[in-house]
Amino acid sequence: MSDNPFAIADPFNPTTPDEKTELRTLARALQFADSFSLLFVRCHQYDQRRRLVATLRKELPQFNVLELHFDRPIDHLLHELHKELRQRLTQPPPDAVFVYGLEYSLPTAAEAHATPLVANLNAARNSFGLIVPCPLVLWVPEYVLTAIMRGAPDFFSVRSGVYYFAATPQETAAFAASLPAGEEWTAASLPLAEKQERITAIESLLADYQ
User: Fold this and answer.
1) Which pLDDT score is estimated for 46?
2) Which of 132, 187, 197, 206 is the most core-located residue (most Cβ within 10 A)?
3) For 115-151, how does the pLDDT look when each residue is reduced to its tens digit (9 = 90+)?
């Protein structure tokens, strides 16, 4: 695990953690946390994230993970978490909360740091531990991680760790092949939500390529 989000992995450096090492470190952080902790997982692609989460579940078979998928923009993550956890009071409390889809609230990298979501993360930074009494894991692409660092530095400062996962060449190739090209679509003909989704997909692909 690297706690420096600006660090660039050196493929010739034998100390650079590989995927198995990074996953094992993340699993340990989840397993030994006994209260709120904030973890970031930098992961760009849906298939890759699904594979990593499945592996984590195998590593921690008794672990109760609450997965929250946001497929729409939100302004206040804390309010959404509070609402979701209140609805599940009759169920066993989660051992960890995984959050996906924050990129829908930060549609473009250039303006992501100035969105309401990021501003509210900073304002509510001291309240997350009162609402989420377990590890909170935000699975985000690179530009969302950077936006939170720049726009919500106080929230980012309470993190316990940042974990980096690069997609395999096969996953990146499959992801690239899934994007429409040429005359299959034109930006002017797409609704706003789909434009934002395409922008996010292409930015993620470029980040993995770099």
Assistant:
1) 86
2) 132
3) 999 999 999 999 999 999 999 999 999 899 999 999 9
CA distances for 20 relative to 24, 104, 144, 172, 181, angstroms = 6, 29, 24, 18, 34
- Res 196 pLDDT > 70: no
Q: What is the pLDDT of residues 62-113, one digit of tens each?
A: 999 999 999 999 999 999 999 988 887 667 889 999 999 999 998 788 888 8
Tokens encoding 113? 């740091």
- C-alpha span between 69 and 87 (Å, rounded): 15
The residue count for the chain: 210
Full DSSP string of the chain: --S-TT----TT-TTS--HHHHHHHHHHHHHH--S-EEEEEE---HHHHHHHHHHHHHHSTT--EEEEE--S--S-HHHHHHHHHHHTTTSPPPSEEEEE-GGGGS--TTTGGGSHHHHHHHHTTTTHHHH--SEEEEEE-HHHHHHHHHH-HHHHTTEEEEEE-PPPHHHHHHHHHHS--GGG--GGGS-HHHHHHHHHHHHHHHHHH-
Max CA-CA distance within the chain? Answer: 53
Bridge partners of 135, per DSSP, are 37
